[in-house]
Prior knowledge:
about 325 residues; MetI-like fold; 2 domains; MetI-like_sf; transmembrane helix
Amino acid sequence: MPRYIIKRILSMIPVFLILTFAVFILSDYAPGNAVDLIASENKMTEEAYQSLIHAYGLDQPLLVRYANWLLDLFQGDMGVSVRAKMPVMQMIGNRIGPSLFLMVTGLVLSVLIAIPLGVAAAFKPYSFWDNCSSTLAFIGNAMPSFFLGLCVLYIFSAKLGIFPGYGMYTAGTEGSLGDLLYHLVMPAFVVAFTLLGDLVKQTRGGLLEVLNEDYVKTARAKGLSEKVVIIKHALRNSLIPIVTVISLNIPYIVGGAVVIEQIFGWPGIGTLMVQSINARDFSVVMGITTMICVVVMCCNIILDIFYGVLDPRISRSK
């Protein structure tokens, strides 16, 4: 397993370089930059404009700027925001906590809902519970996260007034844990619902396949309780495809969280990303892209390790 993890990390280096270079090219060919935007908002002489362009290295060739950015990145420096005049690392550090809290809460909530629904559907196929879970899975796969977010915001905040519709805390308060959780309910539900459909279907399908295996029939023949058969024998062996679904959906969770943060005014990296794109502050965009890329890669490595925990045969083969 350690050798496999090292190989995985090494294989991710080319992916990281290709991804960051692609974003760098797109940023370079995008119309305007932060200095142009500042110049349009303030009276600036041509000399002052060229001085800013030179100060931020925007007059250098593309490959030179990318090489300099990469070299600075390996030294722990993501650059400085042209608009905010702050280190990009500091700006991301201020926003990454709320984003991770939202995404992890949504993921955990989705797993806690999907697995019981999938188990109930598998043990009583074509029953009322199976039909309900299948319908829920279909809706979860078909409905875009931004549309669901707008619907939830309109119904539960604008119309019913049950939950607050904006931010992490109530304005003018010190921000208690209860207030944070109260604001978290709607965005976390939307994040969870986007993953719910695939998890329910995979849990149901995996269990239906496992329940017909000989070792499950043997466990029942030994007189073990249905609870022990489900948890110890059936569910554990059907978790591997569930983990696969989670690993494949991590990029979609991150991408969906960007939209959801905008809808609910959640002060995370998604909101910062949109603000930076609108401000043409591409040093911040590159920093956020790099951070998301690293987080997704690390999550995939962690899930690979989890595979080995669930099935030691996988660990030995690697």
